[in-house]
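Fill-in record for Halocin C8-like bacteriocin domain-containing protein.
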Amino acid sequence: MQKINIQNKIRTVSCFTMILLVIGMVLVTPTLACPVEKSDSSGFLSSCESCNGAELKDIKESDENIIDKNVKTALKSTDIQKLTEALREKGYNLDLANAQGVNAIVDGIYSEALVLPFSSTDNSTVFIEAVIVNNKILRNQAMIVYKDTTSFPMTIDALTIDNDIVTTHSFDVEDLLGENVKAKIQSTEVLASTNPLVSVQTTSSSDNCDMCTDLYDYACRGVWSVTAAVLCYLSGVATLYGTIKCAAVAFVVLEVINKDGCGPVAPVACEIMGFC
C-alpha cells in the first residue's frame, strides 16, 4: 500500500473518463489510453516543500451512500448556502445529480471530501468542495476555473467565507506555474512527439515537478478526476495559495491527459509538459 506524504509531493488526479467532473464538473467523457483498474490507496504530496499538508492514505472514491449523506449535511450549512448563492449570482447552477466524493485517512483520521458541481455556459469549471469528519464540515470553499477555447486553465477564483462574507481570491495560472506555461507545454509536446528521446529543459520549480509527477501518476490509475483538486484540499495544504497552486497543476495535467492520454510514465510526461 502506497502512502501519501503530503508534506512534500502531490499524487493526485485521475485518468479521467469524465474530464474534470469535480473540478468544474463539465461532464465530458474523453477516451484515454489509461489503466482501468482503480487503486484503494495512493501516494500524495511527499516532496512539495510549499504544501505542508497532512499524510493521506487509503484514498477511495466515496460510494453513493456516503455522497448522499454528505450532500444532506452540506445543504444545511450556512456557509455552503452562501457560496451556492454567490455562484448562482454569477450564472452557475448547482448540479446535485453529479455530486462526487472521496474519502481517505488524513493524519490517522478518517475524512471525507464532497464536491458539488455547478453547470456552466462560459467554458469554466465550477464547484464547491467541503471536508467532512464525523458528519461535520470542517472547511469549505468554492472554485471557478476559467479556461480558454482549448480548455486550458487560465485563471482560478477561490471563494471563501471570511467573517460570514463571501470573499473572492483570484489567481492567474501563469503566476502560479510560470510565465507562458501553456506555450511551453505545447512546444515541449511537439518536440517530444518529433523526437521522443530528446531531453526537454525547463526552469519550473521542483515543487511543480513533484506535484505534476504525483498528479499524473494518480490520474492514470483510473481514479475520478475529482480527486485531483479535492485531495489538495482534503490534505489540508497550509495556505490558500498552496491549495490553488496544487489545483492549477491538477487542471493542467488533466487537460494534457485528456488530449494525449497516459502513454509515457509520469517523470517523462511531466518533463514533456515542462514541469520537470
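KEY FINDING: The helical segments are 64-75, 78-89, 173-177, 181-194, 206-219, 226-234, 240-260, 266-272.
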